Amino acid sequence: MLRSSACFSRDPNHIFLCSCFWSYDVLFVFAKFVAIVEHTFTANSSKPIPINIFLKILHSFLVNNAMQYYVITGGPGVGKTTLLHALKCQGFETVAEDARALIKSEMEKNGDALPWADKRKYAVRMLEASIHSYKNAGLISAHKAVFFDRSVVDALGYAAMEEISLPAALITAAKECRYQKHVFILPPWAEIYETDAERKQQWSEALRTFESLKGAYLKLGYMLIELPKATVEERCRFVLKHIAAI
After folding, report:
1. Which residues of 83-92 are buried (b: 16+ CB within 10 A; e: fewer)?
2. Pair (206, 109) in one structural domain
3. Cβ-Cβ contacts under 8 Å for 209 (sequence gap 6 or more)
4. In 3D, which of 172, 149, 174, 188 has the Cα closest to residue 69?
5. Does residue 197 belong to any structural domain of this protein?
6. pLDDT of 172-209, one tens digit each?
7. Which domain holds residue 150?
8. Is 101 in the same domain as 219?
9. Is there a domain that residue 224 lies in?
10. How far apart are CA 92 and CA 85, in angstroms?
11. CA separation for the pair 150, 192 (Å, rounded)
12. In this structure, is residue 3 part of a structural domain?
């Protein structure tokens, strides 16, 4: 059993004080979680909630809340970032790709956590950043759809493709990050594929990346929805039509 100082508090004054410092979105999620706990345990109970029961409720709540975490993935140079920008312009919250940000940061400081330098260090840093972005997503918008430019699964897929061993604890933490089971994947598109300072993969490697990511998502039980090779406006309508039906 938890000690009273560490257990979940039912004191409404405590909840009010917390709400003064939390954003509306975070408070919205917290209120939902409180309602679930209160439904599970009688309000007049003075006994602390067992930690194992509390954690089970919390885990279930977080998984269900992640049902509005939509992932847009695919190989490099297929139009993901352009699509995310279009969704953002329509008022949706988005989470930028961690891999590109990591590569840019490493190049600026002459670091070696890069896919063409120390691949293992790059894979670990990318996975750590992806987990961090997932955890921060609840602070972005707790009760609205959030679109991710890639996810922790992409980092796992990259590591598998390059046969890189990752720390067991990091893999466990990554697998606990769950997204909406329907994942949007953009197919390879040779006509628009371009390399740049942060994207150095040749076309053959881009194809291999797509297949690796596809396999990683399927292995973890996600259902893939392949987007058409179309204008960004058409792709945006395609995504919105599908999430409305989910």
Report:
1. bbebbeeeeb
2. yes
3. 75, 76, 157, 158, 161, 201
4. 149
5. yes
6. 999 999 999 999 999 999 998 887 666 667 888 889 99
7. 67-245
8. yes
9. yes
10. 9
11. 19
12. no
Nearest to 177 by CA among 119, 141, 138: 138
* 195 located within any domain: yes
pTM for this prediction? 0.72
How far is 170 from 193, CA to CA, in rounded Å? 32
Residue 42 shares a structural domain with residue 109: no
Within 8 A by CB and 6+ apart from 12, the residues are: none
Q: Which of 116, 80, 101, 91 is nearest to 205 (CA)?
A: 116
d(CA 212, CA 194) in angstroms, rounded, equals 20
Q: Give tens-digit pLDDT for 1-48.
A: 333 333 334 444 443 333 333 343 444 445 555 555 555 554 445 566
Which phi and psi angles does 226 have, rounded to 5°? -85, 125
Pairing of strands 146-149, 182-186: unpaired
